């Protein structure tokens, strides 16, 4: 599809160069351009409703643009300004200390859980088994939840699993034939959303309290530049997700009904959104060893599965994924304390 678009663009450019002296041709091109702009506006409007800002060709590669690429260098023209640096603590979900509270961080827990799900839930009619992952599902209301994801040649299975009692709680099958759109890209909020601002304030307050109060009770203040850095106003700047995801949709571009959009317990949401599990950034080993927690690996195999299906009409796009959250106070609290993950929480575990 991307090649067709490129050929079409090249053809139009050639026509523009050969007919610069023809007034009538110019008028026809203007009318055609106006028609194309109107068509693009309709596509953009429907893409917003389906979860993407601007849909582009799927021929681009899977570029790791998040904190996973830390330590790698990309070639950049000399005259191009360097990218704005972001404090590392905002790029990586959770800290290396808190990540050990996750039950899934313990050796062998995820592997045993996945094997249990494969044995109990997959049947020959579900198709050929292609892979399994532990990912973060992001709900319609921007809540993060820990999920096991199984991929076969016919379906995607999302499993809610109790990693404390080591048992399945719920599962959902989504057949690949039903998918009409897959979007891969950055997780973003609408321009009018207050979530980035609220997240920045909350994160800044948490950082200052930790550095000024908690850390100073445990060690002697260093003073100087370190002391001034604590109150850096950048800590309070709006914080976007800084995270990539993949969204699977079967709504055919139609907007959500009011009943679904305003019901936090609705089971009729026509899309699934996944991101990498927080353990990905903290698990020891190579990229291959951590691929079980990697959204990008899942997206690649999902794309191959879709492309190998002759009957599938699913379109794959690389563009921002819009999270329709405008205030998000409850989701911010939910995600900050990891209510969607099984963790050790003081004297309790849930």
Automatic annotation (TrEMBL):
PROSITE patterns recorded: HSAC2
Biased amino acid composition, Low complexity: 46-61
Domain of life: Eukaryota
Region entry Disordered, spans: 16-87
Compositionally biased spans, kind Basic and acidic residues: 26-40, 77-86
A family per Pfam: hSac2
InterPro entries: hSac2, Inositol_phosphatase, TPRG1-like
HSac2 domain span: 104-249
Protein family according to the UniProt entry: Belongs to the TPRG1 family.
Record's protein name: HSac2 domain-containing protein
Provenance organism: Iphiclides podalirius
